[in-house]
Specification:
By secondary structure, the chain is mostly helical. The chain has 5 helices and 2 strands, in the order ααββααα. It has a two-stranded antiparallel ribbon with strand order 1-2.
Length: 171
């Protein structure tokens, strides 16, 4: 997606409004147009990011991701699976991401956190296995964790038999 036409359109609008103010306003608009270009591009990218997040929320378990290559943003769409037979897994009784409950705000927030490279790699692998972006996978995992619902990949815990004790994970 080329943002240049949108930035140029806003620049022309600014010049048109400045024409109404006379020579000083026109000169000021010309001086401001260059520095405003980067701010305009950032504002457009923020709007596109918010739109992608909103669409991802509504499309879950599918996702829409905004990627920036150079100065050009592009969208990567991961559609939701069409059915349980396409994923090769039985249909789950509950959705992986519980729907928003009444009273929750529809706004999104950003959070940054530190994790080991090893864990980051494992998260990327898990997201790729499920055909999700890392962000969509983390949102799904966090939502399931705070809701107390097990995710599809978590093993069900059994009652321990008396006299037997096992620890660790097996694949």
């Amino acid at each position: 997606m080329d943002l240049t036409s949108y930035v140029d359109n806003l620049r022309q609008e600014l010049a048109g409004v400045a024409e109404l103010g006379g020579d000083e306003a026109r000169a000021l608009a010309e001086r401001l147009a260059g520095p405003l270009e980067s701010a305009l591009r950032l504002a457009l990218l923020d709007a596109l990011t918010a739109a992608a997040a909103e669409i991802t929320r509504d499309l879950a378990p599918g996702s829409v991701e905004l990627r920036l290559r150079g100065r050009q943003p592009s969208f990567v769409v991961t559609p939701p699976p069409t059915g349980p037979e396409s994923a090769g897994e039985p249909e789950a009784a509950e959705p992986a991401v519980p729907p928003a409950t009444e009273g929750e705000e529809g706004t999104t927030s950003r959070i940054s956190f530190r994790l080991s490279e090893h864990l980051k790699g494992r998260i990327e692998e898990a997201a790729a296995r499920e055909g999700l972006s890392v962000n969509a996978w983390l949102v799904r995992a966090a939502t399931a964790a705070v809701a107390g619902t097990p995710t599809a990949r978590q093993p069900q815990r059994r009652a321990a038999r008396s006299g037997e004790r096992f620890t660790g994970w097996a694949r």
